[in-house]
Every structure is written in C-alpha cells, then in structure tokens.
Amino acid sequence: MENPAKDIHKIFNLIDCAHSPELQKAAIEKYFLPDAGLKYPVFQVERGPGGRDRILKLYQYAGFQLSTHDPLSESRVRWLHIVSPKTKGVITHVVYDKSSHALLLDVTQHLDLIYLPFWKSTSRMLTRLSLEKHGGLQYIAFQEDFMHPDDLAGLLLPPMKTVLQTLLWMVAIFLTVLAMVAQFLGIFAVRKRREDDIKGRRRERRRKNKNGTDTMVSDGTMQEENGKGKEDGQKEGVVARN
After folding, report:
1. Terminus of the chain with fewer CB atoms < 10 Å: N or C?
2. CATH for 4-155, options being 1.10.1270.20, 1.10.3720.10, 3.40.50.150, 3.10.450.50
3. Transmembrane segments in this chain: where (predicted)?
4. How crowded is the C-beta side of 126, counted as CA atoms within 13 Å?
5. Can you give the pTM of this predicted structure?
C-alpha cells in the first residue's frame, strides 16, 4: 500500500466482500506478509512462517472454492455466503497512525440470513491492522478484530443480540447496586466534608487569582493616571514661563 488510509477501502472489498476466490487469494497474497498473523474473537493464527497461508485457508477452505475447475472444491463454499448470499461490509471510519504504522477500521457488517429472512443481522467490529514497510510499500503484518459480545452473538443469530444486550443491562444495574451498598458501608466512599474542603480550596484559589488580577489592573491604571498628571504639570509650567 502506498497510501494505507486510502487504499484500505479497495483492499477490504477484495478480501472481505469479494465474490471471487481468485481475486480474494490474489489480494491476500499481495497485501499480507508471508509471516502475517490474524486474531478473531473465536480463532487466531499466530504470526510466524506460513502465517499467510493459514490465513488464506481460513478465508477460503472454510469458505470460497479454491478453483471453479476443481470438482473437489465445489463443496468448499464460503460458509458466510451459504448462510448469507448478500454479505456486505462497510468501513465507516479509518484512522491511520503513521508513527506506529497502525491502521484502525470501524466496520459494520450486514448479513441477509437465509434462515431468518425477515431479521437483518448487523454487527459492528473494530479492526486493527499492524503494518510493516518493505520496499517503500506498507504490508499487513497482523490483523486483530474486536467485537462486543452482543455483536458477536448476533452475527449469525440476531435474536441473541437483544438477549445479550438485556443481560448486559441487568449486569450493569447489579454492579451499580453493589457499588451503592459498598459505599454505604464505607468502602471507597466519598467523604462529604473532604469533598466540601476540596471545593472550598478551589473557590479560594479562584478568588485569589481574580483579586490578584484586579489589583494588577488597578495598579496599572493608577500608574497611567499619575504619568498623565506629571505630563500635564510639565506642560503648564512651560506655558507659564513663556
């Protein structure tokens, strides 16, 4: 990649949204380093020799046909395109940190599941690409995909997303009540007197700073008035002598 922030849109479409195994294979071999690694919430490929080949297998052997002319490969159809013939990933935001050679992608994935035709699957994912420069071009050395638990659960079973969101909401309420009980018992509780003292000291500092500024302004005004008075007196003396 010459311009990662710009080129990543085309690369993402070739790898994640491609409907041709040949195009996908060519893109992975072109933009991933031979020892690249991949980490997904449910599987990972450690970075090392042959890493790119293992990544390619995850994308294709678990997915695309390797060749349309290979009769044995007809059963190797990408699982995501089986359950969702219309798969679309959209990059909504791109952040490129040139100093650390990192590319961050905010991705929204849309699936039309054949077994739930009236229930759209939409999941959000944050992808971090660690890049390395070779021969003046940037290549993907490691890919990390991060997903919230509800997005991961709702990827292939959208009703689970609502269930998990409700569960997370209930856990948040439980932790809030637990924190209130702990503070009532004096554990990491905010002391009212100490809080008032802190606020009082802040008000005092602001008052002193304000008074100091006013004093400086007043002194400056008095000095200007005294200077003008002296100049007027000198002018009057000159006129009287004349």
Report:
1. C
2. 3.10.450.50
3. 167-190
4. 7
5. 0.67
